[in-house]
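Appendix B, Record 12. Input sequence as logged:
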Amino acid sequence: MFTGVADLKKTFEAARAGRATGQGTLLFIDEIHRFNRSQQDSFLPVMEDGTIVLVGATTENPSFELNGALLSRAQVLVLRRLNDDDLETLLQRAEEFYSRRLPLTEEARASLRAMADGDGRYILSLAEELADMNPSAPLDTAALVSAVQKRAPLYDKTRDEHFNLISALHKSVRGSDPDAALYWLARMLAGGEQPLYLARRIVRMAIEDIGLADPEAVHQALAAKDVYDFLGSPEGELALAQAVVYLATAPKSNAVYKAFGAAQSSAEEHGSLTPPAHILNAPTRLMQRLGYGAGYEYDHGTEEAFSGQNYFPDGMARENYYRPTERGFEKEVAKRLAYWAKLRAQK
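Logged structural output:
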């Protein structure tokens, strides 16, 4: 058990002594992401000169949790969850060990693999429990569930799996796949995710990926949050599911999202430019003498309720940030903008 860099140095000194006699050292560190930056840095020189061969294991994303210098000197191997065939192989090995078949129907056997959720150690533990049973008939799925405790879905609300699943939900909505979106929503709820966190993300999806293509989308998302607040769980979760389906089946547009990003870039680029004088208020005589408000045209006083005046700062060319799509309600917005552009050109 390492408690700091001093403990690691002792291990490295022992490895150097062994190396002097021709003995190599393989150092295995479990949960290596728990080491802080200075502890991780201490591995670098002994990895480079061959004093140790470091093998680190982590359940986190190494790109986020490990130093770049350490990663550059290592080979990353991704260990993926066991699939259904792998789990069946483990069950067969367990049966060979006990010299008898587990007392399960084929349907229950498939359910057992599903309960293991890709975890080989867990399915072997279940197989051990079942091997000790001697039922009068093979267990069906219902009897299996009552005989062994059902496994909670693998889900850590604060780590990688949390971000993986919310990403899967968001991208399924963006990709207009309501069935996949409902699956990921159900996975997160089953894993104990806070429904109001999901509600916030659903609202974000509505404004980021749908926007003015369907202005009702954000209302549906906000309504789902209010319904959940009012009903609570489990009834309120149906409102979240309804909002997810609505968003997934709505026309998509990120035009406002992109337009605002472009406007933010312009604001940073051009600095503190003042508005043109004609759109400034002139509450004092001094401001009037300075030309504040001079030449302003009241849009409602024109025939088309559109003056076509410039509203960008002096010294900055007119920009075009918002470019609506031809999908959903934005198609109507595009017609309005084209009409105003035509009037502006005539002014």
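The first helix runs from residue 5 to 20.
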